[in-house]
Amino acid sequence: MSESTTTDPSTGESPAHDQGEPDGQKWLSGIVSLIGFWLAASPFVYETAQSILWNNLLVGGAIFLLAGYNYYRIVTDHPTSTGVMSLVALLALWTAISHFAIGGEVAMSGLEVADRGLTWSNTVLGLVAAALSAYVASTAGREVPRGTATETR
């Protein structure tokens, strides 16, 4: 099947221009990548236990790289990677609950006050990153009807 190179008379754009992902997905992937960067860096801002430090470094770094990879794919006119963004959603959910799963011993130590800020940061940003990346994964590859607000660029 050959692709037509005619232009739309009303807009003057070629049909191939409309084949990319919506700009919203690009920016949501970028935001999730920045959240991953913060999650990786936050143990150095808050005083915390070694287990949480390594968990945030590894998982936050993975979220940063994977969401950044998806951002790069969209910018270079490749489709969103549903698998990558689904993995990011799972990693972000782990970040939201990991403090309670592996950080329980911290509450008994002298790090309780400083650790509370990191707990809230992980929980809230983990849930936000999970929701955003799940949204990007669920809307990947869907056709956007012409004339809708999400189609505008």
List the helices and strands and how they pair.
Layout lengths: L22 H23 L4 H26 L6 H21 L9 H28 L14
Helix pairs in contact: 1-2, 1-4, 2-3, 3-4
Explain what this protein looks like in three dimensions.
- This protein has 153 residues and is mainly α.
- It has one domain (28-140).
- The chain contains 4 helices and no strands.
- The chain has helices spanning 23-45, 50-75, 82-102, 112-139.
- It comes from Natrinema salaciae.
- InterPro entries: SPW (IPR005530).
- Pfam families: SPW.
Cα-to-Cα separation, first versus last residue: 28 Å
Characterize the quaternary organization of these chains.
single chain
Percent of residues in helices: 55-70%
Low-confidence stretches: 1-8, 13-19
- How many domains make up the coordinates? 1
* Residue-averaged pLDDT: 79
Coarse shape: elongated
Number of strands: 0
Helical region count? 4
Beta-strand residue percentage: under 5%
Task: Please provide a brief summary of the model.
With 153 residues, the protein is mainly alpha-helical.
Write a concise keyword list for the protein shown above.
153 residues; mainly alpha; disordered N terminus; SPW; SPW repeat-containing protein; membrane; transmembrane; transmembrane helix
